[in-house]
Design a protein that fits this description.
Shape: rod-shaped
Number of strands: 8
Largest sheet: 4 strands, antiparallel
Helix content: 40-55%
Order of helices and strands: HHHHEEHHEHEEEEE
Number of helices: 7
């Protein structure tokens, strides 16, 4: 089983391409069965039925290792696709008037085709949605979506006093010495704060040493220091 999963992970893009081709074949099979009246006991229907099952298995394998959400969505789509292929041929034996729970109606080819078309389009949409979630989830992201906190802070390098430029005569001081008395009482709340050192903004831990010429990066209006809280929210 482990080998099979490793094989799927290494060939997932190949399976995706085969899945797209398979969906095109399903579209051709669906259209053919919609415009033709085929006995579901015939050999041609048995062959198309087998091809449909193989394609749907391929669709399932292409998203098998991509998580429970795309699997659940795609499985619903697979069931609908299977129904859209099988129902038109199986339901031909039930054409004509029908009675169900004191209701009457007339089942004809047009109504069967409309229902199968609806199943097929909904199934394709759900399979496509599952594939997008599995392979390209960023397509579903809204524009101007807020960046994750990790991406916001990642653009600032981390400061390490041990990497102080060799040959400089400037002495190092503890970071709290650059803060006001009030800020010194609050600095314990920060994981790190942003400091401008030699023209570059660094992430500096509150117990680090920095050059004397360093400046604390502050908000333009409130002049509050900018940093990451130890308790999971911004300060």
């Amino acid at each position: 089983m482990t080998f099979d999963l490793l094989w799927l992970r290494s060939h997932d893009k190949f399976l995706l391409k085969l899945t797209i081709v398979g969906i095109l074949l399903l579209s051709i099979i669906h259209i053919y069965l919609s415009i033709s009246v085929i006995d579901f006991n015939s050999k041609i229907f048995g062959f198309l039925h087998l091809i449909t099952i193989l394609i749907l298995i391929l669709v399932f394998l292409s998203i098998l290792i991509k998580g429970i959400v795309p699997i659940a969505i795609s499985c619903l789509g697979i069931v609908l696709l299977y129904g859209s292929i099988v129902i038109p041929s199986v339901a031909t034996d039930s054409l004509g008037p029908f009675y169900y729970k004191a209701s009457t109606g007339n089942l004809n080819i047009e109504s069967i085709n409309r229902g199968s078309h609806g199943f097929f389009l909904l199934g394709i949409a759900m399979v496509a949605f599952g594939i997008i979630i599995a392979y390209k989830p960023h397509i579903l992201y809204t524009r101007n979506r807020p960046l994750p906190a990790q991406d916001i802070w990642a653009k600032y390098p981390k400061w390490d006093e041990r990497l102080q430029f060799s040959g400089t005569t400037e002495s190092l001081i503890r970071l709290p010495n650059l803060l006001s008395d009030t800020e010194k009482y609050l600095v314990w709340r920060y994981e790190f704060i942003l400091v401008i050192i030699y023209g570059t903004v660094y992430q500096v831990h509150t117990d680090s040493f920095v050059p004397e010429s360093s400046k604390i990066l502050r908000e333009s209006k409130s002049h509050k220091i900018i940093g990451l809280s130890k308790y999971g929210y911004f300060i």
